[in-house]
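Section 3.1 - Work completed
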Amino acid sequence: MRISEAAKMTGLSVSNIRFYEKKGLLAPVRQEESKYRDYSMEDIKELKKIILLRKMDVSVESIYLMKNGEASLVNVLMRQEEELTARMEMLQGSIDLCRQILKEQDPENIDFDYYLNYVKEEEAQGRRFAEVEELLEDLAEFSRMTQFRGDPYVGRFFSNVWVARGLSVILAVCALLIPLSAIIRGLGSGTKDILAQGAVVFWVLWLLALCLSWAGFRRRKR
């Protein structure tokens, strides 16, 4: 059957089905004469399984591992139950906090210290509330190149215009190593080894510098 028929049978959109195919969760047979995908009842069954797992908020990555035999359904569901339970406990703590504040006569002028102490005491007893660490926002801010200029590790590379330009050239050259691999294949084995080792060392040092920069950035943010 065609993808439109598979979509009707499962209730999924065509784009959803194509997304699952790209992620390796589905592999319908292609018809030799038309090159169209031919969805079998086994594919429909697989799609229904995916839907059920996604309804339990199981990640696409976990479903992929199950499909490839790298994880069992039981183990995935046990881990998912633990994660959902922890999330539910966190949400329940936040809901109860909302309700308590709404009971106040003047919620706009509550004693913030009182409620912060309440949260601290509850967390000490094992209760959970929403996390305050704004890691995603920090990552977004850190990713801006302007942050590097004030960083004690990476910033020194950008303190001088000519150094910054030179570093950009080096990055561009390293990026070209991949498309130039066909040319490198024609060189001697010794030359190839030197180029490969040099590229690896460069990127390891660059990642190390970024890690140090990130640690310093987070320390300054606090």
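Second construct:
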Amino acid sequence: MVDLSADYEVMGYSVGDTKAGTKMGKLQLRNINENSTLNCILWEETLNRLDSKLFRTGNIVKITGASFNEKFNNCLVSNMEIVKEASLGLDEETRNKHYLDILNVIKEFKNEDLKNFVQDVWIKNEDLIKIAPAAKMMHHNYLGGLIQHIYECLEFAKCVFPNMHKKIEKDVLLAACILHDIGKIYEYKIDFETGFVEYNEEFKKDWISHSQYGFSLCMANDQPQIAKMIAAHHGRADWGAMIDLGEKDLDGYYYIVHHIDDLSAKFGKIYISDLEK
């Protein structure tokens, strides 16, 4: 049931068409006190009446009019008000710092071919890397979310590597962390007024997913081990992995980026509100 006394954080928002040809909004909220998720529907009349800025990712809102549909397990929202307006994500200073910190990691690679390849990708895509979100809803779905996610993955990798008994080169592991989601700079787009994250339809015309993009990029630049880690980093085929980690007799390195990526997604700074603490 919906708790009208609770404050909710906006986690994701999208608008689509109904079978009747009208607009319907889908809103995902997080109950701040209970850390539970509430899935909401808004009909076209409500969308036309409410300011779209209300649905900015990270906003703290209160539901002032709603009914709950137990059959479909969602909340039909008719009115909301803002409690606290969120930022769009990371500020420019933090994004620039993360970018340079990661660039410095790349410059320390001992493998010259790998360093040149990753550095070229990083520098050529600087503007997009600094603004890209890491997801539409699941994690780091805000301005600069991708660079925050990559930065966290590198920090986890640095902790994990000393215990890997040299079964993988450090440069290769760090490069895989940097490039595993690089396709997201093209896969997603963010609205700089509302903070809404959407899929880029132009990207979807040519690519199946960001994983396919990253895999192809690394294979084309003679980095098959990194390509395979990217292909496996979603873990399961039904989660979008090109290589399912449930397969038998996979080498250990296939699993590394998946677990590092998962740690960042689950324990990293997932919510915009966390950035302000």
